[in-house]
Amino acid sequence: MLRITRRVYWTDSRDVLHWINSDHRRYSQFVAFRVSELLEISEPAEWRWVPTRLNVADDGTKWDGTPDLTPESRWFTGPDFLWLPESKWPHTPPLRAANTAELRPHLLLHRTVSISAGINYELICVSKFSKWKLLRNCVALVFRYISNLRLKTKEQPILIGPLSADELNKAEEYLFRLAQHEGFPNEVANLDSICLTETTKSLPKTSPLYQLNPQLDERGVIRMRTRIGACQFATEAAKKPIILPRDHHITTLIMKHYHHCNHETVINELRQRFHIPRIRVGFAKARRNCQRCKNETAMPHPPIMADLPPARLAAFTRPFTYVGIDYFGPIEVALGRRVEKRWGMLITCLTIRAIHIELVCTLSTNSCIMGLRNFVARRGTPRKIYSDRGTNFVGASRTLKEAMAAINEKQFMEEFISSETDWIFNPPAAPHMGGCWERLIRTVKANLMAIQSSRKPTDEVLRNVLIEIESIVNSRPLTHVPIDSDSAPALTPNHFLLGSSDGSKPLTILDNSGSALLQNWRSSQIIANQFWRRWVTDYLPEITRRTKWFVHTKPIVIGDVVIIVDPQLPRNCWPKGRIIHTKVGCDGCIRSATIQTAKGIYERPVTKLAVLDVRREEQ
Questions:
Q1: CA-based angle 60:61:63, to the nearest 5?
Q2: N or C: which end of the chain has fewer CB within 10 A?
Q3: How many CB atoms lie within 10 A of CB 454?
Q4: DSSP class of residue 421?
């Protein structure tokens, strides 16, 4: 096995030798990178110079006629001097100055400045910093660098390791002086002259610091002379707080450093050490300009409450022409010795607010279809059906949500959508769009809780209970109950379904003559029209006014960054996304939008979207 004990690299370029033996970082990126690659695998002492006429590598790149590539040529045997002793190898001449074309242009500016207490000099551009702690540490590192340069000149050990408390205090005092020099230049000059002349002269009365009784400490920082100097339990910082200008960037950074805590706590802590004029105004401004605070406090701004849909105002139409569907449950029933779950399908008429309850055994698509067909057989075919999405049919039950996700909406639509019936789905997570049936489900649940017993009901008992609750809910008044007993009774859904609030009718003698039948038919039409006229005059005014969302708001637009409000999750877990599509309602307002998030695409109502106040790159 061949063992290599020494390596020698040859080049006919003196510039390359000069680059290898010098600091390659001074040159352009191309030269610096190539030289650094060579130094990773070799040492500068291993490189030697060879004349161009003896450079074998030129035979492969610089041809002078036909190249000699025979087995006896130097391309295969190497240059002749390699067969001679090392003393007869080409000698490397003294390196001359390299070509300056590859030097990286740079400019060194040497300036002697004083950073003493009385001189205003901005050592670091503080406006480029957004955090107080980072600015303070950078200034402390600059001071350490200056101190280490002085120690090097004295051949003393330099400072290394983490920043000490003295270094951080020195950096803070410098930043306080800088803010005071820029915020109160005249006051600093006057206080300096007072200290030098040792007079009792005070600041002019026009000075903003006149009433604060300021003084310069031994570090050159302006402090307020308070009246609690004799208190033994107060700190020196509380006895003589540092005066800072309210609108300076350093003051803003200090307030931002503390402002994520309780508001009054932050102001109290700042007052323990600083005196900032109108501190509450400056603190509120810092919170308004903080992106983190804007994200944490962003809330949805719903548009003005939409007008009622035509289905809610369809007077003089058959009951259950426009219906809304929702589920409630589960309810446990006893079947022999086993327990099973049942659900209730609530179907409400959007016009007269009557309800119809069907008991379904499962949450499968077939059970839902059978429940709807039972409703159609007894109440007639509806013209429009409104419902939530499959995963939002019920509230918080995880089992119900998982089962409802398996409901086939396509099969529903194929079964019920025709030329006479249309099925409309509300956007996900939009319970306010189905407030008609959501409120009635609450009423049904309240009645169920009122008659709940310790024993689990059977299917027959549960069906009877739901029918009784249906009758109770349909007999509720839609309008205010009149105080005067002589007034007409309050209008109820049963008036449209049964002719009276409880369905009772006076007994009469049967008369099946033609004139009597015609007169009875006309009387029934007159009574029905009276109910509808009362619906228009008594019930319709009750639903005219808006109960919330009274004003127009700025609509969301495509490209807005939003967070999706989810009451089931903590706020810091709400997903963020970007609006990619919007849907406009009948009134021209945007009511829902499609959001692109990191985990997929969602459709949500505007009431669940909080727009983040962030600037786009194109703006």
A1: 85
A2: N
A3: 4
A4: -
